[in-house]
Design goal:
single chain, alpha/beta
């Protein structure tokens, strides 16, 4: 997968904003490995207050539990970088916001922190519409920390677009 440039992410965020405005949806982003980059990409767009509700950067286990309601058992059994955690994050983001659409990301951007079963570049992204079922997908991105994070933002935005009518 090509690493998106700033211009490509801006174009993607702009198009997504137009779609969210058209469908009268509001978005919440729950971010771990991207550290707020999804929210930044979206709020760089003038008028984003029409369709962007809020963003939560939840790096620690405690933040994931306290702000999003991720269960301690989920983190203990599956770890922060897992399908189960991503789904609980995206569901919790909707519960704790006024948004109708949510995205959550959790992953290992590197350069350290990887393991044989979860190498650097492993990222789980989950998407959900209020009242619907969460969808989660694992990605294995290549490159350095910035490359992994850029690719995560691009895929997160693309997945939101797929949720919209």
């Amino acid at each position: 997968m090509p690493i998106p440039s700033d211009a490509q992410l801006r174009e993607q965020a702009d198009a997504l904003g137009e779609r969210l405005r058209a469908t009268r949806d509001h978005l919440v982003a729950a971010e771990s490995c991207t550290g707020g980059w999804i929210a930044k990409s979206l709020t760089d767009i003038a008028g984003s207050s029409d369709w962007f509700d809020c963003g939560m950067v939840v790096y620690s286990y405690e933040a994931k539990q306290g702000l999003l309601g991720v269960r301690p058992q989920t983190l203990e059994e599956h770890g922060a970088v897992s399908r189960e955690t991503a789904i609980e994050m995206v569901s919790g983001a909707l519960v704790h916001s006024g948004a109708s659409v949510a995205v959550a990301v959790t992953g290992i951007a590197g350069p350290g922190g990887g393991s044989p079963d979860k190498p650097v570049g492993t990222v789980w992204i989950a998407w959900k519409r209020r009242g619907g079922y969460a969808r989660a997908q694992v990605f294995h991105f290549d490159g350095d920390r910035e490359a992994v994070r850029r690719q995560t933002v691009g895929q997160a935005l693309a997945g939101i677009a797929e949720l919209l009518p």
